Amino acid sequence: MRIGMIGLGRMGANMVRRLLKGGHECVAYDRKPATVAALAAEGAHGANSLAELVRVLPPPRAVWIMVPAAIVDPVIGELRPLLTKGDVLIDGGNSNYRDDIRRADELKAAGIRYLDVGTSGGVLGLEQGFCLMIGGEPDAVALLEPALATLAPGGRMPAAARGEAASGAAPGRAASAAAAALGYLHCGPPGAGHFVKMIHNGIEYGLMAAYAEGLNVLAHADAGLSAAAADAETAPLANPRFFQYRLDLAAITEVWRHGSIISSRLLDLTAEALARDEKLTAFGGRVSDSGEGRWTLEAAIETGVPAPVLSAALYSRFESRGQAEFANKVLSAMRLAFGGHAEKSA
């Protein structure tokens, strides 16, 4: 099929490449002409404007938006007068699912169909495929299924559904266990795809924090080999003999990758980073959050579902960016006031 891709960043460009490798035609647009030219050299049709992108797509058009959540609405605003009834607009970024519900309603009035597709896979997606979590109406999903299946890790539609889905005659197939086993799933009506991706990312925060905290304990397992301060401001190490291990974190994360119950793609990436530099000297430890963790907790609060691990993981990211600095100063001020405890230098 022919599909338009708007936004050729780290994931958007690789999605175009994977679609091209799968035999699809791609019309690619980005605000950076050099990025468009690079993909045109690889076989995509480079568009110089949104109007050109829409013009060269045959109706019903499929236009995939892969841009930051903050600019999805402005892009849709530019596209809407260019699209016609029956076209499908896909947001594959990390939008808030509540925005998807609103957009689907607004576009439906013009006869334009809308899909929200939570996309996971990062820079590895080109070779390994992208996990796709889809929200929207079944007929629009069926129209896009050939491209969705190509992007997914399986690289194909379920064998029994291949002919029907390719002709757009199999709405509902993408909601099957067979499609899920290939790496894509129609999760439900508008917003469902990004809701599932939101929770996916909330879980990701927790998993990352667990690895980071555990490795930090291992990194300090040599505490008993250093002379500890002996003063009223420092809790003594009860038995230094129990903490005299200089551990090879790169080797430990590598051995965990083989047969361990905590093996995962996140662990693979961590092991690779530690193999390059066990001290991770290139990193300052400032951890960003792009919104999904916050939205996950909002959903948990509104539905009364406890999520203490995900909450702690999000707050640790805030702390990494210095957001706890003033609170820590307040603690020091109180200790000085009630006990005369002078703040120790770092």
Keywords:
single chain; 346 residues; alpha/beta; 8-stranded mixed beta sheet; 15 helices; 8 strands; elongated
Summarize the structure.
It is built from 15 helices and eight strands.
Provide an overview of this structure.
The structure is a single chain. The chain has helices spanning 10-21, 33-40, 50-55, 72-79, 97-108, 125-128, 138-151, 162-166, 177-181, 192-219, 249-256, 265-276, 292-303, 308-320, 325-339, and strands spanning 2-6, 25-29, 45-46, 62-65, 88-91, 113-120, 131-135, 184-188. Helix 5 (97-108) links the parallel strand 5 (88-91) and strand 6 (113-120). By secondary structure, the chain is of the alpha/beta class. Strands 3-2-1-4-5-6-7-8 form an eight-stranded mixed β-sheet, with helices on both faces. 47% of the residues lie in helices and 11% in strands.
Helix content: 40-55%
Overall pLDDT metric: 94
Strand content: 5-15%
Structural class: alpha/beta
- Tell me the number of strands: 8
Low-confidence stretches: none
Our measurement of the CA-to-CA distance between the termini, rounded to an integer number of angstroms, reads 60 Å
Biggest sheet descriptor? 8 strands, mixed
Rg of Cα set: 25 Å
Q: Which oligomeric state applies? A: single chain
- Record the strand order, biggest sheet: 3-2-1-4-5-6-7-8
Count every helix, treating DSSP H or I runs of 4 or more residues as helices.
Answer: 15
Q: How would you spell out the order of helices and strands?
A: EHEHEHEHEHEHEHHHEHHHHHH
Using the alpha-carbon principal axes, give the shape.
elongated
